[in-house]
């Protein structure tokens, strides 16, 4: 993530990212202190630095735990339920950010085909999007609630 786009994170995901960042920085510092590195070690270091930058960008631009309004509109921080119109299957997921684990719920980013299609949709609204195969799919937004409300309901 190289833009300054605001991202929504749960407090738990924010904490996990901070812990991962600290671990990666420590590992990177330890390897940097060693003399001579082989190609494999250098490749691992590049991957670590890339992940460190990705986490840093997420944390700098994060809105942590502030639920969006409970207005039924699909946006980051909302747990949405959609029905796939071709087979009547439903799926519930968090519109959030990939690369930051949010517990047991599946996460779709707003950059994914489905996430971008339903972004801004209101309950009952149909949206069509293109699948990676090139086919199109239509979904109906059945429900959108703030993550905090969804998590509280699951805890009961």
From TrEMBL:
Taxonomy, superkingdom: Bacteria
Gene3D superfamilies assigned: Transcription elongation factor, GreA/GreB, C-terminal domain
Keyword list, A-Z: Elongation factor, Protein biosynthesis
GO biological process per UniProt: DNA-templated transcription elongation; regulation of DNA-templated transcription elongation
InterPro entries per record: GreA/GreB_C_sf, TF_GreA/GreB_CS, Tscrpt_elong_fac_GreA/B_C, Tscrpt_elong_fac_GreA/B_fam
SUPFAM superfamilies from the UniProt entry: FKBP-like
Domain Transcription elongation factor GreA/GreB C-terminal: 72-142
Gene Ontology molecular function terms on file: DNA binding; RNA polymerase binding; translation elongation factor activity
Keyword Flavoprotein belongs to the record: no
Ribosomal protein listed as a keyword: no
The protein, known as: Transcription elongation factor GreA
Organism: Mycolicibacterium pulveris (Mycobacterium pulveris)
């Amino acid at each position: 993530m190289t833009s300054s786009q605001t991202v929504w994170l749960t407090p738990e995901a924010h904490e996990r990212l901070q812990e991962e960042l600290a671990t990666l920085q420590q590992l990177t510092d330890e390897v940097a202190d060693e003399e001579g590195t082989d190609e494999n070690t250098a490749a691992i270091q590049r991957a670590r630095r890339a992940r460190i930058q990705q986490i840093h960008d997420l944390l700098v631009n994060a809105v942590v735990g502030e639920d969006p309004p409970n207005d039924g509109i699909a946006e980051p921080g909302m747990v949405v339920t959609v029905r796939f119109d071709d087979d009547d299957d439903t799926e519930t997921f968090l519109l959030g950010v990939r690369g930051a684990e949010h517990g047991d719920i599946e996460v779709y980013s707003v950059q994914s085909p489905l996430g971008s299609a339903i972004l801004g949709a209101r309950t009952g609204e149909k949206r069509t999007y293109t699948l990676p195969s090139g086919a199109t799919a239509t979904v109906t937004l059945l429900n959108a609630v703030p993550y905090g409300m969804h998590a509280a309901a699951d805890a009961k």
